[in-house]
Amino acid sequence: MARDSIYAHPQGQVVDFAFTEAVADVFPDMIRRSVPGYETIISLLGVIARRYAQADSRIYDLGCSLGAATLSMAAQVREAGVSFVCVDNSSAMTSRCEQIMQRRLPAGHFEVICDDIQHVVLENASVVVLNFTLQFLKPADRLAMLERIYQGLRPGGVLILSEKLRFAAAADQDLLTDLHLEFKRANGYSELEISQKRSALDNVLIPDTFEEHAARLQAAGFKQTVNWFQGFSFASLLAVKGE
Ligand code: GEK
């Protein structure tokens, strides 16, 4: 696995973070060392998909990057006629994802689309995954995205929504930020790398509180939302559409 050293050297002016070729090359290492619980979430997404996948339906992986969530779900789903749709608007990600899927999944069982997830038509879905993607949409666009997902889900279908959370109480925010910094140090990131990456993400990754997510999911129509996983400030929610 190629090691992430993108922010290891001083950058005169740190530009906004983007999912470039350089990022795609080191992405598995970057996300594993930056997101507490990422590998556990990926593995357990498969179990959730195993429970909720419906025969002859689609499973969407929105903001798929290299398709880790899809591979985990494909290894678990047993129903007949399930096909996977992976979407990302970074061509650096989708070109690599396409190659990985061709190696790992049977032809005709998947599609990799390079587009904004806000433009993709969602239909006949039993499971939709937004694994650390909604946080990159403008806050004003997030409800419309969830409404489109809700409309595209079959009755009884689910959305798995993983996000970095914000905390309303300043003391909680400080504590969890501190633990996340320690996690990055423990994974070998230097103070320079941590601070440059933080500046790069400042205007790009805008987190919501759990309460904001829960209220938005309810407004979009979901009947039940549970927080099924949390590693420091990184959480994954399961939202269920009623029968
Ligand atoms: C994983 N889910 O490994 N439309 C399409 N893609 C987008 C958009 C958009 N509007 N905005 C951002 N992306 C993956 C990890 S990474 C999370 C997801 C992270 C894409 C972006 O190009 C990137 O590939 C992905 O969302 C976010 O389970 O890096 O923190």
Characteristics of this structure?
7-stranded mixed sheet; binds ligand GEK; 243 residues; 8 helices; single chain; alpha/beta
What's a quick, concise take on this entry?
The chain has 8 helices and 7 strands; from the N terminus they run ααβαβαββαβαααββ.
How would the global form be characterised?
globular
Q: Count the helices. How many?
A: 8
The arrangement of helices and strands along the chain is HHEHEHEEHEHHHEE
Mean pLDDT: 95
Can you summarize the main beta sheet?
A: 7 strands, mixed
Beta-strand segment tally: 7
By oligomeric state, this entry counts as: single chain
What would your notes on this structure say?
- The longest helix is centred in the last third of the chain and has 17 residues, at 170-186.
- This protein has helices at residues 21-34, 38-52, 68-76, 91-104, 142-152, 170-186, 191-201, 210-220, and strands at 58-62, 83-88, 110-114, 125-131, 153-164, 224-231, 234-240.
- It contains 8 helices and 7 strands; from the N terminus they run ααβαβαββαβαααββ.
- A 7-stranded mixed β-sheet has the order 3-2-1-4-5-7-6, with helices on both faces.
- With 243 residues, the chain is an alpha/beta fold.
- Helix 5 links the parallel strand 4 (125-131) and strand 5.
- Ligand GEK binds at residues 19, 31, 63-65, 68-69, 87-90, 93, 116-118, 131-133, 136-137.
- Ligand GEK binds next to helix 3 and strand 2.
